[in-house]
Amino acid sequence: MEGLSDILDELSCGEDEQAEAALSHLAALGSEVVEALCERLFNPEPEVRWWAVRALAEIHDERVPALLTRALSDPDKGVRWCAGLALRTNPSAQAAPTLLNLLSDKDALTRRLAGDALVAIGTQVVPQLLDAMQNSEHITRLEAIRALARIGDERAIPMLFDALDDNSALIEYWASEGLEKMGVGMVFYEPE
Questions:
Q1: Inter-CA distances, 74 with 19, 85, 107, 120, Å
Q2: Are 52 and 105 found together in one domain?
Q3: Helical H runs in the chain?
Q4: Does residue 152 fall inside a structural domain?
Q5: Over the stretch 57-82, which tens digit does the pLDDT of each residue have?
Q6: What range does the domain containing 139 cover?
Q7: Is there a domain that residue 192 lies in?
């Protein structure tokens, strides 16, 4: 495609204003540019990979979720964060297994973005989040319960009630928030 090479060069030129303009052009081209952006995901420069992920987030194509999921494993955390944000705004159940694994990442922002992307996927991931609550370390459980609270699926109610007695104030907080969101909590009875 004529001019595509120039637009791709502008995407990673180092000038944010130019890159955003190039991004708009690429988004308008849509599916036609997915292959070219895919190639950029293997570039040795993190900035080139970041902008490729950023551009893919603007394109609605069946190949994009797999590419964004792959970017969650990029060696550069900025690229991983960009992919997490992209999957939060463009949820894909295809990414769920990778996102669930990232709930135990050493980096707090990576964990948070993975949890947010799981919330965006919604009720499909509730069984896996419930499993994470039972079989994981504290940091994973914290992100799992936060996601469960924000999804608000009734299947989580027993787990949320159990978590009210957890040793962690943050886990107790999210359990309470989740129950409140679903309208479950204290029930008051009128005296007879």
A1: 21, 14, 14, 22
A2: no
A3: 4-11, 16-29, 34-40, 46-56, 64-71, 77-89, 96-102, 108-121, 126-135, 138-151, 157-163, 169-181
A4: yes
A5: 999 889 999 999 999 999 999 999 99
A6: 93-183
A7: no
